[in-house]
Amino acid sequence: MRVPIVRLEMVVDGYAEYLRDPLSSSGKAAEWIERNIIRHSNREHVIVVGCDAGGRATYIDEVGRGSVDYCPGAIPEIFKAAIMSNATRIFIFHNHPGGDPAPSRVDREFTRKVREAGELLEIELTDHIIIGRNGAYYSFMEDNLLDGSPGTDGS
């Protein structure tokens, strides 16, 4: 039996305009992703933005595209590009095409799992931002739900 010898590489599909400033606020980050990636889509997307130690975006990866009210986001897919690019932190974005950015129980559980996986991999989940309509967004970081305290898991 033969076992393949492999090499992984990231392939650039395109570019989004970005000023090399750190992603310093959830509102600016949400606006940037909505304008450059999601663009009023009628289905849910899960987007990961990897950042260097200074908080500057180094890549954007669409890890899921779903239906009008659901989008799968597999934990290994969330971290694959982060590991390959030596990212030290990630932002996760997803949209709610219905307009209301309030997180569901599933959104809260997903965030908890990503945060825990990131801790094991030493890649910080800086924020999970849900984008609604007309500039509305929800930030888990702004709501203090990324530190593992009660509420992160939906309780």
Write a structural description:
It contains 3 helices and 5 strands; from the N terminus they run αββαβαββ. The protein has 155 residues and is an alpha+beta fold. The protein has a single domain, classed as Cytidine Deaminase, domain 2 (3-Layer(aba) Sandwich). It has a 5-stranded mixed sheet, with helices on both faces. Strand 3 (89-95), helix 3 (105-121) and strand 4 (124-131) form a beta-alpha-beta unit. Helix 2 (75-84) packs parallel to helix 3 (105-121). The longest helix is centred in the last third of the chain and has 17 residues, at 105-121. It is globular. The model is unreliable at 150-155 (pLDDT under 50).
* Largest sheet descriptor: 5 strands, mixed
Strand order of the largest sheet: 2-1-3-4-5
CATH class: Alpha Beta
CATH topology: Cytidine Deaminase, domain 2
**Tally of DSSP helical segments:** 3
**N-to-C terminal Cα separation, in Å?**
51 Å
